[in-house]
Design a protein that fits this description.
By secondary structure, the protein is α+β, with helices and mostly antiparallel strands. It is built from seven helices and 24 strands. Helix 2 packs parallel to helix 4. It is globular, with a radius of gyration of 23 Å. The chain starts with a helix and ends with a strand.
Length: about 500
C-alpha cells in the first residue's frame, strides 16, 4: 500500500509538472436524462442510484481517446429520493478528517464510493451534486436529527473530498434547508486552475456567483436542473449571458427532461462565447467535451473573429425542429410595457421612469401569415422567482405567435410550419442603469434553436467607463449580422436590492 501511494504521488507530480506547461485543460460535462428515474417500482433506491452512477461511469469510459482533467455532473439526479435519509452523507466530518470514500467501504454507501473511486480510476476531478445531510443545530429538527442540503461535492484525482458547496438559492425545494450564510467555495486543481462552484438558480443572484467572479475566480463548475422560461431565461441563454458578463469559463452540466423544460449543457469561454453547447432534445444522455483555456488573459487581443462563426439557417433549423416537444415556461409578460413592431423603429420607450432607446430595422418578406410577430418589451420592477421576489430591468425585442400580448413567449409548433417573414438587419438597444454592484445587466439573445447568438453576431458595450453625468451607467447591445431566426435580443438586468422572500 505504501509503494502504491508513493507511485501514485509520483504520477500525479509528473502530471502536474506537465500540465503546468500547457495552456488548456480538458473538461467534460454530462447531460443526464432523469425522466425515467424511479419508474421501476420494483427497483430499490440503492439499485436505482447505483444504476445512475454506472451510467456516468460507462459514459466516461466510452471516451477511450480522451483523458479528462475535470468532469461536472448535473444537479439532482444522483440522490433524488430524500425519504431514504439513512443513505445520505454528512460531509462535515469527511472534510475535517480527509477520509477517502474509495478506501473505506465500511463507512460509505456504494454510490458515494463509486464516485470517489471513479475520480481515482479516471485520474480526474469530479464535481457531483448530491443531497447532503447534516446534524441539525436549530429548532425544530426532523425526527432523525438531520437537516438536508442541495450540495456539490468535489473529488480530487485520488478520490478525496476536495470541496463542498451548499446551494444558497433554492427553487421550490421545500424539503431542503437554506444555509444561513452563503458559501464561497473554491478548489485549486493540480493543473493550475482555481475553480468556483455553485448550483442552478444561484446563477441569477449576486451571491455566490457574482461574488466569486468579482473576487477573481474565473473558472466555474455549474451543475443544474434548469427549467427553461421564454423569452429571456432559457438554459443556454442564461448560461451564456452570465459567462459573457463576468468573462468567465463556465462548465455547465444540465439534468435533462424535455417534457418539463429541463436540459442545456456545455462550455462558455467568457466574451468569446459558447463552445460545444446544446440541449438533448428527445430526452437522453450525452457527454460534452471541450479543451478550455487556463488563462483568459494569455491572449490580450481575445480574437473572437477567429474562434466563432455565424450558424447557417439550415443548422439552426435542424436543431430547432427537434425541440418541438421541449417545454418552455413563460415569463410574466403582462406587466411589461410593450409595443408591437410593424415598421422600422428609432425611438425611446419607457416603463414608468425606466427608459431605453430602440433602433430596429428589418425586411418583411411577407411569405405567410404563419410567422412570428415581434414586440418591444420594457420593464423595471419585481417578479416572482420560485419562492422569492426578484428585481428585474429589461429592454428587449422578442417574439409572439400572433399580434396579441398573450401570445408572446409562446412558440409556433410544429416548427416546420413557420415561414419567417422578418429578417432583422439591425437592432440596437441602449439603456441607462444605476451604477451599483447591487445591480447587474446582461446581454440576452435567443435563436429558434434555443441557443444564444455567437459572439461575432453582436456587440455588448458594458465598459464601466461609460459613466454618465447623472450617475448612471450606459449599456448597449447591437446586432452585427442580419438575423432570420431570431426570437429574443436585448438587455436583461437584475436588481438585487429588490429581492425578498415571498
Amino acid at each position: 500500500m505504501i509503494v502504491y501511494r508513493l507511485l501514485f504521488s509520483f504520477v500525479v507530480l509528473i502530471q502536474t509538472c506537465l500540465s503546468s506547461n500547457e495552456t488548456h485543460y480538458t473538461a467534460a460535462v454530462i447531460e443526464y436524462n432523469f425522466s425515467n428515474l424511479n419508474s421501476n417500482q420494483n427497483q430499490s433506491y440503492e439499485d436505482s442510484t447505483n444504476e445512475i452512477i454506472n451510467d456516468f461511469v460507462n459514459l466516461i469510459a466510452s471516451e477511450t481517446a480522451k483523458s479528462f482533467d475535470i468532469i461536472v455532473l448535473p444537479e439532482s439526479v444522483i440522490t433524488t429520493d430524500i425519504n431514504t435519509r439513512q443513505d445520505l452523507i454528512d460531509l462535515s466530518p469527511l472534510i475535517a478528517t480527509g477520509n477517502n470514500p474509495c478506501n473505506n467501504p465500511q463507512l460509505f454507501p456504494d454510490y458515494y464510493r463509486t464516485l470517489s473511486c471513479s475520480a481515482a480510476n479516471f485520474n480526474t476531478y469530479i464535481v457531483a451534486n448530491v443531497v447532503e445531510k447534516s446534524l441539525c443545530e436549530r429548532e425544530p429538527c426532523a425526527s432523525d436529527g438531520y437537516d438536508l442540503y442541495n450540495t456539490n461535492v468535489v473529488f480530487d484525482r485520488a478520490g478525496f473530498v476536495a470541496a463542498r458547496y451548499r446551494k444558497f438559492h433554492l427553487f421550490g425545494e421545500y424539503e431542503k434547508n437554506v444555509t444561513e450564510e452563503v458559501d464561497l467555495t473554491t478548489f485549486k486543481t493540480d493543473f493550475g486552475v482555481n475553480f468556483g462552484t455553485f448550483i442552478c438558480f444561484d446563477i441569477l443572484f449576486e451571491e455566490p456567483s457574482l461574488w466569486l467572479t468579482r473576487n477573481g475566480t474565473k473558472h466555474l463548475a455549474f451543475p443544474s436542473m434548469w427549467f427553461s422560461e421564454a423569452p429571456f431565461l432559457t438554459a443556454l441563454q442564461v448560461q451564456n449571458m452570465f459567462a459573457v458578463t463576468t468573462d468567465s469559463v463556465l462548465l455547465a452540466s444540465g439534468a435533462n427532461y424535455p417534457a418539463i423544460g429541463s436540459g442545456g449543457s456545455g462550455f462558455y469561454i467568457g466574451v468569446e462565447g459558447p463552445k460545444n453547447i446544446g440541449i438533448v432534445s428527445q430526452g437522453g444522455t450525452k457527454i460534452f467535451i471541450a479543451d478550455l483555456p487556463k488563462d483568459l488573459n494569455r491572449n490580450s487581443k481575445r480574437n473572437i473573429q477567429n474562434n466563432q462563426r455565424k450558424k447557417s439557417v439550415e443548422e439552426i433549423d435542424q436543431v430547432a425542429k427537434s425541440l418541438d416537444e421541449f417545454y418552455l415556461k413563460r415569463d410574466q409578460l403582462d406587466v411589461y410595457t410593450t409595443h408591437l413592431i410593424t415598421e422600422n423603429i428609432n425611438s425611446t420607450y419607457c416603463h414608468e421612469d425606466f427608459c431605453c432607446k430602440f433602433v430596429v430595422e428589418f425586411t418583411n418578406t411577407q411569405k405567410s401569415l404563419k410567422s412570428y410577430y415581434y414586440r418591444i418589451f420594457i420593464y423595471s420592477g419585481v417578479r416572482t422567482f420560485g419562492g422569492i421576489y426578484g428585481g428585474v430591468d429589461v429592454c428587449a425585442v422578442s417574439f409572439c405567435n400572433d399580434t396579441s400580448l398573450e401570445s408572446c413567449g409562446r412558440r409556433i409548433i410544429p416548427y416546420e410550419d413557420i415561414e419567417w417573414n422578418l429578417i432583422f438587419e439591425n437592432i440596437e438597444i441602449t439603456g441607462n442603469f444605476d451604477d451599483s454592484k447591487r445591480k447587474q445587466q446582461y446581454p440576452n439573445s435567443l435563436l429558434s434553436d434555443l441557443e444564444p447568438l455567437q459572439a461575432v453576431e453582436y456587440a455588448w458595450e458594458s465598459d464601466e467607463s461609460n459613466l454618465l453625468s447623472n450617475g448612471k451607467i450606459e449599456r448597449k447591445i447591437k446586432l452585427l449580422t442580419s438575423q432570420e431566426r431570431l426570437l429574443t435580443f436585448g438587455i436583461y438586468g437584475r436588481d438585487f436590492t429588490r429581492d425578498s422572500s415571498i
